[in-house]
Design goal:
With 287 residues, the chain is of the alpha+beta class. It has 2 domains: 115 residues, Aminotransferase class 4, branched-chain amino acid transferase, N-terminal domain (D-amino Acid Aminotransferase, Chain A, domain 1, 2-Layer Sandwich); 160 residues, D-amino Acid Aminotransferase, Chain A, domain 2 (Alpha-Beta Barrel), CATH 3.20.10.10. 31% of the residues lie in helices and 29% in strands. Bound molecules: 4'-deoxy-4'-aminopyridoxal-5'-phosphate (PMP).
């Protein structure tokens, strides 16, 4: 296997050689933010949107931007070029840097900037054609879920409940309303209308979520962005999960019960085809 080349604080190096000090606040406090950008045929998908969300996360934790968007863009292309595989998943992480352990922000610490590439694993055909199983849980995470924080313990604990149950994801409710899943956004379809929870502090503003809403709008699919009750989800005709790596997947069982007729629905098939077309068009334009 070819060696992965990563970027750490101004240098490219093999992954095995990369080290960070134990006092990095990312390690001690989970004090940092991250991004994951999918790359198809060596072209980053929606990079400006990911950089905008990274800025939102940095602002949300009061961390000054360590690099300009132009610098991030050059580095992204550089990491892609230095790593094998045409389809990659580029991970960016910025932490508040290295300092003696104290909760308050350190004076003068330099942010740690890290980027790595992994192979992009998109869903198997079988998952697209048959859909996936999900379970449900109460969303017990903090109230700043719009920030893509590396403090992901809540998400990890929740995701493991899904894995333990043989499910792909955990669909969460807070105060009786749908939020999102542990690493994806969630949509429902009822009576032919696509329902999306609003982008607020309770969910991550997904880049794929935006693509789905744009495609629905451009193709005149009936759409409502509003709070969605747990009852509406449990009686939905279709449920979908979306993320940069999962793209759009149909949820065909929820807590062991069939969603709709237990197969990916007609609206899913339409949006999945539109998503694939859209991706191809964007990549062709970038080439
Ligand atoms: N919500 C959460 C909690 C996530 O971790 C992710 C994946 N990063 C998403 C939603 C989907 O976001 P995106 O479409 O930008 O991958």
């Amino acid at each position: 296997m070819a060696t992965d080349i990563i970027y750490l604080n101004g240098e490219f190096m093999p992954l095995e050689e990369a080290r960070i000090p134990v006092l990095d606040r990312g390690f001690i406090f989970g004090d940092g933010v991250y991004e994951v950008v999918p790359v198809y045929s060596r072209h980053p998908f929606r990079l400006p949107e990911h950089l905008r969300r990274l800025q939102h996360s940095l602002d949300g934790i009061r961390l000054a931007k360590p690099l300009t968007d132009a610098e991030w863009t050059v580095l992204t292309h550089d990491i892609v070029a230095r790593n094998p595989g045409d389809d990659q998943s580029i991970y960016f992480q910025v932490t508040r840097g290295v300092a003696r352990r104290a909760h308050e922000f350190p004076q003068g610490a330099k942010p740690t900037v890290f980027m790595m590439s992994s192979p992009l694993v998109t869903p198997a055909r079988e998952q697209v054609e048959n859909g996936v199983a999900c379970i449900t849980a109460t969303d017990f995470r903090w109230l700043k879920c719009d920030l893509k924080s590396v403090s992901l313990l809540g998400n990890c604990l929740l995701k493991q409940t899904a894995v333990d149950a043989g499910a792909a994801e955990v669909v969460m409710f807070r105060d009786g309303y749908l939020t999102e899943a542990s690493a994806s956004n969630v949509f429902a379809v009822r009576n032919g209308i696509l329902l999306a929870p609003p982008k607020n502090h309770l969910i991550l503003p997904g880049i794929t979520y935006d693509v789905v809403l744009e495609l629905a709008g451009a193709n005149k699919l009936p759409l409502e962005v509003r709070e969605i009750s747990e009852h509406e989800v449990r009686t939905a005709h279709e449920i979908w999960i979306t993320s940069s790596t999962k793209e759009v997947l149909a949820v065909t069982t929820l807590d062991g019960r069939a969603v709709g007729d237990g197969k990916p629905g007609a609206v899913f098939r339409r949006i999945h085809a539109l998503y694939q077309d859209f991706k191809q068009t964007v990549m062709r334009r970038a080439a």
